[in-house]
Design brief:
With 251 residues, this protein is an all-alpha fold. It has ten helices and no strands. The longest helix has 35 residues. The chain is elongated and about 75 Å long.
């Protein structure tokens, strides 16, 4: 992992020169790591467009976090319910499957009409992208549980609740956590769309605003910060996997 980052950094230095040799790429298109670091420090101390870098980061994390938690709290239980109950699946699976292929950004103007340009429409556009991933992932995880395990539990006298809590839910956790990890990348991507309209704060907004003024260094700071947020969240889920489903791959 470290070697990958070192290789990417070395390629970046080689292309931009960093003042040590002539740059192979114009700074307008790709500023050097030194320039990006200097811009980061300037944004950290002076802010951007009247707001500190920390403020932009917290606003983006609030939008993403609210949508992400909402989908976990609602989407995962809905998926579990569809996985264990065919009636619930018959009612909820068709609308979820129909909405899943729809590009969510095309719904943003409609959400703005319905909910205005405030935080609700920004959070909902992320929810619409993450909800199908988590709900369908949870449903498929339940359906993938071995029937022999379920029948063995029933033969030992377990009731439906015990089978769900002791067999279905633990066996479904690897698939659920995988869906959650996939949702992180999609959610960070949708954050860009959420901050396209009606806002003057957020990391993605800062990056897009920088692009309007050909401030590639500001754009790269925003991109790197979004990448860092996504990577840290993904790492957190992987650590949770190691604790919660530590038996995976050892059976």
């Amino acid at each position: 992992m470290v070697s990958s980052f070192v290789l990417m950094a070395a390629l970046w230095v080689a292309l931009t020169g960093c003042g040590l040799w002539p740059a192979m790429v114009s700074p307008i298109f790709l500023p050097s790591p030194v320039k990006v670091a200097q811009t980061f420090m300037t944004l950290w101390t002076d802010g951007y467009q009247g707001s500190t870098l920390v403020h932009h980061m917290l606003v983006s994390m609030w939008r993403f976090g609210a949508a992400f938690i909402l989908c976990i709290v609602i989407g995962v239980p809905v998926g579990l319910a569809m996985g264990v109950n065919k009636t619930v699946q018959g009612l909820l699976d068709p609308p979820i499957e129909i909405s899943r292929p729809v590009p969510k950004l095309i719904l943003l103007p409609l959400l703005i009409i319905w909910f205005g340009i405030g935080e609700a429409s920004k959070i909902l556009i992320i929810v619409l992208a993450l909800f199908p991933i988590m709900s369908v992932g949870a449903m498929q995880a339940v359906k993938g549980v071995s029937k022999r395990k379920i029948n063995a539990a029933y033969s030992l006298g377990a009731n439906h609740r015990t089978v769900f809590m002791r067999v279905l839910l633990p066996a479904s956790m690897p698939g659920i956590l995988t869906a959650v990890r996939v949702s992180i990348g999609v959610g960070v991507t949708m954050l860009v769309g959420a901050e396209m309209v009606g806002t003057n704060s957020g990391i993605a907004w800062m990056a897009m605003s920088g692009a309007d003024f050909m401030r590639t260094d500001v754009v790269l700071v925003g991109v790197l910060m979004m990448a860092l947020i996504g990577y840290v969240l993904d790492l957190a889920i992987r650590l949770l996997e190691a604790k919660v489903v530590h038996w995976v791959g050892k059976q």
